[in-house]
Specification:
By secondary structure, the protein is of the alpha/beta class. Bound molecules: flavin-adenine dinucleotide and iron/sulfur cluster (2 copies). The site of flavin-adenine dinucleotide has 41 residues, from α11, α16, α18, α19 and α20.
Length: 506
């Protein structure tokens, strides 16, 4: 036993004792339910976890999940469900947990979400389902709402650990073929639903591994890659063909998939993987990375596994990460695990405006990331060999709200200071991948480079559908998955009502 497992065992013991004290759970009235305190998530100890890449959150035990589920008031109008982008029937699945029927709980979730183990871990719940929860409102603190995502993760993990995940039934072959560009959550959800209808599905992925941001962006310590790999294995078991190292628009133009290769429809889920830079002096210095490159080296190429992985990583002592979203937190926490002595997060607004999940901010602080808020990076400083040696920042004050409703940072003249740094990671956001639109004539995009779709997720080209970040701009896993499912419904309806592509030979 180490400090982390001790901690989990202790939380389990406390939950068990509280459950026993509550007596017959079925007779608990609403005021008593609302008084039960939220179960904390057992986590690896901060000092321990910065020395490994293992998952930080350890997951609820059975006692914790049962007790947490009893906090739900079973509100008839389901405000929590309204806050979920894919409308999971939350009261119904939480009730099943309170009754000890975890398998029923996971079945209810899967009516709406295909990736509960993943979304239970990474969903920005406090801005979605939890935000609307009546219990949170009673406590006047959204953080005290029913811990919906933790319960979702609990039942989905249990199903996987018990080996109870069944491969969905696939309808008899229709003779129709559908190509999918990319393998992020939008594409995975689309591929599963189209395959279930009996169509042949081929995923074309540019990288050597599938999963999109789930594999190359979100670090192992937040989302174990074995979970992502399992979802992809399930797709293969359903008969989905996967071709990696295949860049649509380079290896083969999208139009040829339809015109010559016999595909009846295409789904574009190519994501928002183009990093933004600040346009400040010094961004070309050695030691400046986009968060995408930095995280991809660590996650996908396993650069942290020195001696065994072929990918080198940049040994840095003092790392400055620019930004305040989940990507910035992931980069900062990765830098610590890669051995940096000091990691500084530089953000223009205050902590209140940070787009990152509150839990990620908390974890970053516990791990020792130093926050420099109201600080705008002005230039990156280099030495005589053009290697980063520092970052000049300007102090800011908050001015009037901008178009996003957040107050704009206004630099204070003469407030420049320098942070000593030998590596700078730019994590200020991503824009849609431009390759597919650029190489596909007639594919309409908006001013921000996002593919334009109609209410059925169909693009300006007939039988070409799109969804996820390439349509929304950088968004969330659950939104991407929801878009993939909606596009699959439209694609299946189209294939049912139209004649096959003559090139498919059927
Ligand atoms: P992606 O996941 O981006 O997948 C697109 C895939 O398409 C990639 O694999 C790419 O290689 C491939 N591709 C691109 N072009 C081509 C081509 N021409 N040919 C073939 N393949 C191609 N969201 C959350 O909800 N919670 C979080 O905690 C969270 N953390 C994040 C952390 C990081 C570091 C990042 C970068 C994002 C995070 N997000 C988070 C956002 C979330 O991951 C994305 O919104 C989501 O993955 C989008 O899914 P997608 O399927 O549209 O695209
Ligand atoms: Fe909440 Fe996300 Fe689960 Fe929906 S998918 S219930 S928003 S955690
Ligand atoms: Fe339960 Fe909260 Fe949903 Fe009400 S709003 S049903 S308390 S999860």
């Amino acid at each position: 036993m180490n400090a982390s497992t001790d901690h989990r065992a202790e939380l389990d013991r406390i939950a068990g004792a509280e459950l026993a004290a509550l007596g017959d759970a079925s007779s608990l009235n609403a005021p008593r339910r609302a008084k039960i305190a939220q179960r904390p998530m057992p986590s690896q100890d901060a000092g321990e976890r910065i020395r490994n890449m293992d998952e930080v959150a350890l997951g609820y035990t059975e006692n914790m999940a049962r007790l947490e589920s009893l906090r739900c008031l079973q509100c008839p109008n389901k405000p929590c469900t309204e806050g979920c982008p894919v409308s999971i029937d939350i009261p119904r699945f939480v009730k099943a947990i309170s009754e000890g029927d975890d398998q029923r709980a996971v079945s209810v979730i899967k009516e709406a979400s295909l990736l509960p183990s993943i979304c239970g871990r990474v969903c920005p719940q406090e801005r979605q389902c939890m935000k609307n929860c009546t219990v949170g409102k009673l406590h006047k603190d959204v953080g005290q709402a029913v811990a919906i995502g933790r319960l979702e993760r609990y039942v989905a993990d249990l199903e996987r650990e018990r080996g109870e995940i069944s491969i969905p039934d696939v309808a008899p072959p229709t003779g129709r073929r559908v190509a999918v560009v990319g393998s992020g959550p939008a594409s995975l959800a689309f591929a599963a639903d189209v395959r279930r209808a009996g169509h042949a599905v081929t995923i074309f992925e540019a990288l050597h591994k599938c999963g999109g941001v789930l594999s190359y962006g979100i670090p192992e310590f937040r989302l174990p890659k074995a979970i992502v790999a399992r979802e992809i294995e399930n797709l293969r078991a359903m008969g989905v063909e996967i071709r990696t190292n295949f860049v649509v628009g380079r290896s083969r133009p999208l139009a040829k998939l339809l015109e010559e290769d016999g595909f009846d429809a295409v789904f574009v889920g190519s994501g928002a993987g183009l990093p933004k830079f600040m346009g400040i002096p010094g961004e070309n210095l050695v030691g400046v990375f986009s968060a995408n490159e930095y995280l991809t080296r660590s996650n996908l190429m396993k650069a942290f596994d020195e001696g065994r992985a072929a990918t080198p990583f940049y040994h840095a002592r003092r790392v400055a990460v620019l930004g305040g979203g989940n990507v910035a937190m992931d980069a900062a926490r990765t830098a610590l695990r890669l051995g940096a002595e000091k990691v500084m997060l530089v953000y223009r607004r205050t902590e209140e405006e940070m787009p990152a999940r509150a839990e990620e901010v908390e974890h970053a602080k516990e791990e020792g990331v130093e926050f420099h808020v109201l600080s705008n990076p002005a230039r990156i400083l280099g030495d005589e060999n053009d290697v980063v040696r520092g970052l000049e920042i300007v102090r800011c004050e908050l001015g009037e709200p901008d178009a996003t409703g957040r107050r704009s940072p206004v630099p204070v003249p003469g407030s420049e200071t320098t942070l000593d740094a030998d590596c700078v990671v730019v994590a200020i956001g991503n824009t849609p991948n431009p390759l597919v639109p650029k190489t596909t004539s007639g594919l309409a995009v908006d001013a921000k480079g996002r593919i334009v779709v109609d209410a059925n997720h169909e693009t300006s080209i007939r039988n070409v559908f799109a969804g996820g970040d390439i349509v929304l701009g950088a968004a969330t896993v659950i939104k991407a998955m929801g878009e993939g499912r909606a596009a699959a419904r439209a694609c299946n309806a189209r294939l049912q009502s139209s004649s096959p592509n003559p090139e498919s030979g059927t």
